[in-house]
Amino acid sequence: MKEQILSAIEESIEAKEYLKEQEDSLLGAAEIIFKRFQEGRKLLTCGNGGSAADAQHIAAEFTGRFKKERKGLPAIALTTDTSFLTAWANDYEEGFETIFERQVQSLAKRNDVLWGISTSGNSENVVRAFRKGREMGTYNLSLTGRDGGKLKELSDLNINIPVAATARIQEAHELAYHIICGLVDDYAAHADRGEKWSVNK
Predict the structure, then answer these.
(1) Is residue 91 part of a domain?
(2) Binding site: which residues?
């Protein structure tokens, strides 16, 4: 049993190591999110299962706070409206596959950020949301695993963890979005104090 514990820890560390190779992408994600917030845009997040929990976690960090006092930032988790989700999935043959697509069509505006999370990169409802977002002019940001799947190809910026185990991918995803939230916190806190802060993207 101890070997199993140590193996899980080592696998998690190994998965997170892939983020070191994507430092520029992590920084770029934070910069584009903050820039869009400054422009009056919003962030929409989505995912399934554990990734749905991650989508809600991300939105909560922005509308609430992460580690610094600042103004609230406009982020909506598409996974939280249970009345819509259950009605739409129940009433239409392909309802579950189109739940996020419909919300993007209803809520997104051009230049909003759409942040999708899928450990396989092939979650059909997230893929359809990204296709709708691309059609509407959203900036598509994704967290994926394995080979990135279809979602990688529909993304303006993709952060990928190329391992097989879903749990290890999710653990690396949490570190990735905590890094991004922390950077956006820094940008927003400086902006609240009226200090100039460079955003290059």
Answers:
(1) yes
(2) 48-50, 57, 61, 90-91, 118-120, 123, 170, 178
